[in-house]
Amino acid sequence: METPRRTFLIRTMGFASGLAMSRFAFADAASVSEADPMAGALGYKANAAKVDKTKYPRYTVGQACGNCALFQGPPNSTSAPCSVFAGKEVAAKGWCSAYSKRA
């Protein structure tokens, strides 16, 4: 049984508009809070200068979310989504123990 052209067009337009609307939903992603349980477990700090170097000896000066491979925005942005925190935005000047230098 073939799908009528009108039904096909209506479904296609519905799918396309839903896809377009989903881009707006992710545009205003929530920011990660240092009080968030996941952030606490990874030692996330919004300002890398405040990282406890005795607790996180892997941290070195110059490491920041902005130059991390998991940072999903351009390096010059002030914040962007991070794949570790389920797409929530992190500060570019921040740091967590999942840091991996961008290639």
From TrEMBL:
What's in the keyword line of the UniProt record? 4Fe-4S, Electron transport, Iron, Iron-sulfur, Metal-binding, Plasmid, Signal, Transport
A Pfam family that the UniProt record links to this protein? HIPIP
Question: From which residue to which does any coiled coil extend?
Answer: none
Signal peptide start and end residues = 1-27
- Annotated GO MF terms: 4 iron, 4 sulfur cluster binding; electron transfer activity; metal ion binding
| InterPro entries, A to Z | High_potential_FeS_prot, HIPIP_sf
Tell me which residues make up the High potential iron-sulfur proteins family profile domain: 26-103
Question: At the top level of its lineage, which domain of life is listed?
Answer: Bacteria
Residues spanning the membrane: none
Instruction: Return one Gene Ontology term, BP aspect.
Output: aerobic electron transport chain
Q: Which SUPFAM superfamilies match?
A: HIPIP (high potential iron protein) (SSF57652)
PROSITE patterns of this UniProt entry?
Answer: HIPIP
This protein's assembly is summarised as: Homodimer.
What does it do?
Answer: Specific class of high-redox-potential 4Fe-4S ferredoxins. Functions in anaerobic electron transport in most purple and in some other photosynthetic bacteria and in at least one genus (Paracoccus) of halophilic, denitrifying bacteria.
Family statement: Belongs to the high-potential iron-sulfur protein (HiPIP) family.
Name the record gives this protein: High-potential iron-sulfur protein
The opening ranks of the lineage are: Bacteria, Pseudomonadati, Pseudomonadota, Betaproteobacteria, Burkholderiales
